[in-house]
Amino acid sequence: MRAVVAGLVLLLGAAPAAAAEITAYDVTVRSQLMGPARVEARIEIAAPSPGDVLVPVGFATADALQAQEVPAGVTLTLERSDGASLLRIGVPAGTPSPLAVTFTFSISPALPVPVVAAGERATLPGGSRVARHAFVNTQPLRIARYTCLFVMPGGMRVHAIREALPRLGKTEVGPRVRLVDVEGLAGARLAAGPLRQGDSTSMQVEAVPRARPWGLLAAGVLLSVAYLVYFRDLVAPPRA
């Protein structure tokens, strides 16, 4: 009896083991009008277990993976499954917690030209682009926070946010997609979490060329013409 009681005391007094989860998953897409875009990502995992950890990448065309900051012994491998991209993180025994890895890869295209159906009129000015991103947590590991920042090329600005999902919960502080400035470049940041297996988040942003100062240019031309007309006697050559 005493042995049973002692066992119950030890069981109740034992602290529960910390559950593994992705505490932060931050992605930055540095888009270009032409060619592939560079994507920078950082993942932080609390209480990782030794073995392989699979993490959804969120970009089907992810390629050219390069590890930037990875603890000793940790490996990163880019894989594809059912048309989706996955990051396999090899975690050796004794890896400290939290585990943080930073890596880059490329995607294409990042800012596709809007497709106008036959017989319909374009709703955006020429040179416009659309940034779309959808992320689904296909793996069991819970993601406490996920962010994706799209940095627009120079000369582009965000015209409208067409999609920002999921809708904000009662306890969340919005907006889901926020417009930001990144070293003088326009950007849009998606933030969501927690994301359990099967949860998703997405955004769709329209980008247009920055407006040119045609009004100022036209005003300058009119002032120049008015100056020449008003002072034409001063600039005219003397008569013989």
What structural keywords apply?
single chain, 240 residues, mainly beta, seven-stranded mixed sheet, three-stranded antiparallel sheet, 3 helices
- List unreliable stretches of 5+ residues: 4-16, 213-221
Q: What is the percentage of strand-forming residues? A: 35-45%
The counted number of beta strands is 13
Category by helix and strand content: mainly beta
* Major beta sheet summary: 7 strands, mixed
How much helix is in the residues? 10-25%
Report the principal-axis shape. globular
| Sequence of strands across the biggest β-sheet | 4-7-2-1-9-12-11
Mean pLDDT: 84
**Radius of gyration, whole Å:** 27 Å
How is this structure best described in words?
By secondary structure, the protein is mostly beta strands. 14% of the residues lie in helices and 44% in strands. The chain contains 3 helices and 13 strands. The chain has a 7-stranded mixed beta sheet, with no helix packed on it. It has a 3-stranded antiparallel beta sheet with strand order 3-6-5, with no helix packed on it. β11 and β12 form a beta hairpin. It is globular and about 60 Å long. It starts with a helix and ends in a 5-residue tail after the last helix. About 9% of the residues have low confidence.
Short description:
It is built from three helices and 13 strands. It has helices spanning 2-13, 214-230, 232-235; strands at 21-30, 37-46, 51-56, 63-69, 75-81, 84-91, 99-107, 129-136, 146-151, 156-165, 177-182, 185-192, 200-209.
Provide the fold topology:
Blueprint: H1 2-13, E1 21-30, E2 37-46, E3 51-56, E4 63-69, E5 75-81, E6 84-91, E7 99-107, E8 129-136, E9 146-151, E10 156-165, E11 177-182, E12 185-192, E13 200-209, H2 214-230, H3 232-235
Parallel strand pairs: 1-9
Antiparallel strand pairs: 1-2, 2-7, 3-6, 4-7, 5-6, 8-13, 9-12, 10-13, 11-12
